[in-house]
Design a protein that fits this description.
With 432 residues, the protein is of the alpha/beta class. Helix content is 38%, strand content 23%. Strands 1, 2, 3, 4, 5, 15, 16, 17 and 18 form a nine-stranded mixed sheet that branches. Strands 6, 7, 8, 9 and 10 form a five-stranded parallel sheet that branches. A hairpin with a 2-residue loop joins strand 16 and strand 17. Helix 2 runs parallel beside helix 3, helix 2 crosses helix 16 and helix 12 crosses helix 13. The chain starts with a strand and ends with a helix. The protein binds nickel (II) ion. Nickel (II) ion (NI) binds next to loops.
């Protein structure tokens, strides 16, 4: 048994990658799955009826790169360049965070993501067992990873505590919660990981059969330092280390070259666009139109709430549809439906949730009901355009993951908002 949503406007990506709008549609979910989408529904008995009049049903948004506990550091160190921000402000305060702080910071992020219609996310941080615990309670889907940092070139990394921790988290959590939680391996970045370390992580990922999540070519400094140190671009460096032989999610990719993108395409590396974070840290504007032309899978992410400063995927959707037009002087650079695909199905594919990201029979029921009864949705010339250019996170009315309602009209079904805010305030006081 499940839900029968009647008379809704369904917006989803089809098999041919086109984004389609289906009006007056009925969507039926059975268990965790979508069992019917169309305008001529079968009779059903015992399903909970939802009136979709004046609402759009879209796939849940997928945040393909973030660091959720960093909500604790929101607005703590703003208006700084990445290296100053990271080394002088973020790393020192992160060293003080306890596993319990990370647990509550994660819950704060989960509140924010759920209310904004995010149903799935890709995270890199530490104390991942506590992040996994919070995610399990929330009902969201996630690909989680322990950020791996070791700049020392060693013959043998078997005693590397971080890598050991990452493997143990994998063993404990990969596939947990009926497959809602998956674990990746995450070399933080080429400037925090020695080549031998990256090779070891690659070999470990191959053994485990998991995905790689890493930061790639985020700043001009990273790009030039890599050229100076290794005589090649960051992408070429990682390619030569064999990292991309493993399915890889590469965050940022701001300064990748055309040749780099050919290499990424060859290895099917996902390009995660983080427009909000890249703009805020002054890192630049990623070459997304070229990546799309080359047929790369481009997904969208917020990055952490300390460099964005929120986990609102609607802003990323909007920014990705806008900034490339201004930057390239081409209003066709990234279209509304391109941005919609990046925020939904492309992210789901990147994270290995291949059965999510579309409103389609046989897909998981990870869906968001948007209330269209706001002035900014009228008139309805083009709903995909309205979603990319005028939708707001506050339009999210109901959020489903695996056919379960996690949020409805401001009410959380799985998380205790008051308690979470209380704990976060306590932690903030103690930390600062
Ligand atoms: Ni990041």
């Amino acid at each position: 048994m499940g839900y029968r949503i009647e008379n809704a406007t369904v917006v989803t990506c089809e098999d041919n990658q086109e984004v389609r709008v289906l009006k007056n549609a009925t969507v039926i979910t059975d268990g965790g799955e979508i069992s019917y989408v169309g305008i001529d529904p079968p009779e059903t008995k015992g399903f909970t009826l939802i009136n979709g009049t004046g609402k759009a049903l879209i796939p849940g948004l997928v945040n393909a790169h973030t660091h959720i506990p960093m909500t604790l550091l929101r607005s703590y160190a703003d208006d700084l360049e990445l290296h100053t921000w990271l080394y002088q402000h973020i790393f020192p305060i992160e060293a003080k965070l306890t596993a319990d702080d990370i647990y509550w910071g994660s819950q704060l992020a989960l509140l924010e993501m759920i209310a904004g219609g995010t149903t799935c996310f890709n995270d890199m941080y530490y104390s991942v067992d506590r992040i996994a615990e919070a995610t399990a309670t929330s009902g969201l889907k996630a690909l989680l990873s322990r950020g791996l940092i070791n700049g020392a070139e060693l013959d043998d990394y078997t005693n590397d505590d971080r890598l050991k921790e990452a493997v143990s988290v994998y063993e404990q959590w990969n596939g947990a919660e009926e497959g809602r939680i998956r674990i990746a391996l995450a070399p933080h970045a080429l400037y925090t990981c020695a080549p031998g370390y990256i090779r070891t992580i690659r070999d470990t990922a191959e053994k485990l059969g998991t995905i790689i999540h890493t930061h790639v070519d985020e700043t001009v400094k990273e790009h030039n330092d890599c050229l100076n140190q290794y005589g090649k671009t960051p992408v070429k460096h990682l390619y030569d280390l064999g990292l991309f032989d493993i399915p890889t999610i590469a965050a940022h990719c701001v300064h990748v070259t055309e040749g780099d993108m050919d290499k990424m395409k060859e290895k099917n590396v996902t390009f995660v666009h983080n427009p909000g974070s890249n703009l805020k840290l002054g890192s630049g504007i990623a070459p997304v139109p070229t990546a799309m032309e080359k047929g790369l899978n481009v997904a969208l992410g917020t990055d952490g709430a300390s460099s964005n400063n929120n986990l609102n995927m609607w802003e990323e959707l909007n920014l990705s549809a806008l900034i490339h037009k201004g930057f390239s002087l081409d209003p066709l650079a990234v279209k509304a439906q391109d941005a919609f695909r990046m925020a939904t199905v492309n992210g789901a594919i990147a994270l290995g949730f291949n059965n999510s990201g579309r409103i389609q029979e046989g897909f998981r029921a990870d869906m968001v009901l948007l209330d269209l009864n706001s002035p900014h949705y009228y008139p309805d010339h083009n709903l995909v355009s309205n979603i990319a250019y005028s939708a707001q996170a506050s339009d999210v009315e109901t959020v489903f993951v695996d056919g379960k309602i996690l949020y409805h009209k401001g009410e959380y079904k799985t998380l205790d908002k008051e308690r979470i805010i209380h704990e976060v305030n306590r932690i903030h006081k103690a930390l600062f």
